[in-house]
Design goal:
Strands 1, 10, 11, 12, 13, 14, 15 and 16 form an eight-stranded mixed beta sheet that branches. Helix 5 (99-111) links the parallel strand 5 (93-96) and strand 6 (116-121). The chain is built from ten helices and 16 strands. It is an alpha/beta fold. The chain is elongated, with a radius of gyration of 23 Å.
């Protein structure tokens, strides 16, 4: 059925093994982030194996589906008060930055007769979540240590996701120093000092990761074989682990400029068009309800994506060597944004595939 997202288990497993080897060679635990493909249980189970130390996702709904996999589960997004019961029930470690939420986690943990592990977030300048002042962090630590059903498991930071701040020896060195200061002041051991996500791989491979960072949270590095600070391909990884296949439903020659007064499109935008004369256009049965069209790249390099509405994507196939017809299939490589949206859509069919290893792709 189409549109179909092919998930190449063989290549994903290869990427996991490569990233795990990189991390282990630097005494870093690997957290595999599963949110980009909605933590499809069959995928997670087949690619994680014994190479992954933690599984992490931002949705409790996804983590619920991974309970049969015997790897500790981490909730990346700060818990909502409305989901506290499920967090305690299904999650081993949650990231936190609000004492009100932590108090509720403690209350619920008492009800469930559990001790819930938390990691306190510290903002190193990316300006997303976390305590921003050191005195606030230490004050939070003191409060957390008073709670009977909460264990302070560690501290963490997030970089590049909002402010695009690149991990460095200086900012991650500050995180490591804070962890050490907390351990010394309160005579405790922090098992978890998380130095960010796939954007920290470049620092690690250049032997600049500060001592004291114990783990990295890897999503895009696994699924697309790229570090996210500079977008560089990680050696010995595949970038074509996901492939979108769509079906052609119309082939027509039409002007490149719409005819008449241009107003807003279906999404409230006023589009601009370039006059390229008459084009041979293919419509494929996928749209913005299913995928971020800026997050896919046609494998046939002669195809140009002209745009999309909710349900249709329009392609310029005028210069293609292949003569596309109704019913033909068009294949796309999938970027991070395209993967997030297509996996969330129930209208995109997912299929696990296995293939022999071919030559690794370059960044596209």
């Amino acid at each position: 059925m189409y549109p179909r997202l092919e998930i190449n288990i063989s290549k994903l497993k290869h990427n996991v093994d490569t990233l795990s080897q990189i991390c282990k060679s630097h005494n870093i635990d690997m957290i595999m982030v599963t949110k980009s493909y909605c933590a499809i249980p069959e995928v997670v189970e087949k690619i994680s194996g014994d190479k992954v130390d933690y599984l992490a996702d931002s949705r409790v709904e996804n983590i619920k589906n991974l309970q049969n996999i015997n790897i500790p589960k981490v909730l990346l997004r700060i818990p909502m008060l409305s989901e506290i019961a499920d967090v305690v029930k299904y999650v081993d470690v949650s990231f936190n930055s609000e004492l009100k939420t932590i108090y509720k986690l403690n209350e619920e943990s008492k009800k469930q007769n559990k001790v819930h592990k938390i990691v306190l977030m510290f903002d190193l300048g990316d300006l997303r979540e976390g305590y921003f002042k050191e005195e606030e962090l230490f004050s939070a630590v003191e409060e957390v240590l008073k709670l009977e059903n909460i264990k302070l498991f560690g501290i963490a930071t997030n970089l590049t996701c909002y402010g695009a701040i690149i991990p460095s020896e200086k900012n991650l060195g500050r995180l490591a120093s804070l962890a050490k200061a907390i351990e010394n002041k309160y005579n405790i051991t922090l098992e978890f000092v998380s130095g960010g996500n796939s954007s920290s791989i470049d620092l690690l491979q250049n032997l600049k990761m500060p001592k004291g960072i114990t783990n990295l949270r890897l999503g895009e590095a696994v699924i697309l074989g790229r570090e996210t600070a500079y977008g560089k391909v990680i050696e010995n990884t595949y970038q074509d682990t996901f492939k979108m296949i769509c079906e052609v439903v119309e082939i027509k020659e039409k002007p490149s400029l719409p005819i008449g007064e241009i107003g807003m499109d279906a999404f409230g935008n006023v589009p601009k068009y370039e006059d390229k004369g008459i084009l041979k256009r293919a419509i494929v049965a996928i749209g913005k309800q299913d995928i971020d069209i800026e997050g896919i790249v046609p494998i046939d390099s002669d195809i140009e994506i002209l745009g999309a509405s909710s349900d249709h994507m329009i392609l310029n196939v005028s210069d293609c060597k292949q003569s596309y017809e109704v019913g033909d299939k068009v294949e796309f490589l999938v970027e991070y944004g395209g993967l997030l949206t297509s996996c969330t859509s129930k209208y995109v069919h997912k299929e696990l595939v296995y293939s022999e290893f071919t030559q690794k792709q370059e960044a596209y």
